[in-house]
Amino acid sequence: MTTLPNCPKCNSEYTYEDGTLLVCPECAYEWTPTTEAQQEDASAIKDANGNILNEGDSVTVIKDLKVKGSSLVIKIGTKVKNIRLIEDATDGHNIDCKIDGIGGMKLKSEFVKKL
C-alpha cells in the first residue's frame, strides 16, 4: 500500500487521488504529485540553454553585464573558470566566481552558458 503525502497547504493527512491530481478534502487544494527526480531536477541550477551546472564548471558570459558600483563591464564571451554554486540564493545570483581583471563576484546563471 502506497501512502499519499500530506497536503502542502494545510498539512492534512486525508489526501486522495483524483485522476492525475492529489486532492485535500479539508481545504480543497489540488496539486500534481512530483517524484524525487523531478524535485531534484527543478532545484538544479541551469544555464541559459537549460544545461545543469556543476561545481568547478567553466562558463561563458552571453550578454554584456555592467558591474554594479563601478564603470566596468563584463563583455560577451568572457570565460569564467571553476565556478562555485550557491544553492539558496535569495537575489538570484547563484554563481560565485573570480573573473580575470575584475575579481570575485556573483553572477546569475541565466546570463551564462556551459562550455
UniProtKB/TrEMBL annotation:
Residues 3-32 form the Protein YjdM N-terminal domain. InterPro entries: YjdM (IPR004624), YjdM_C (IPR013988), YjdM_N (IPR013987). This is Protein YjdM. Belongs to the YjdM family. Residues 45-114 form the Protein YjdM C-terminal domain.
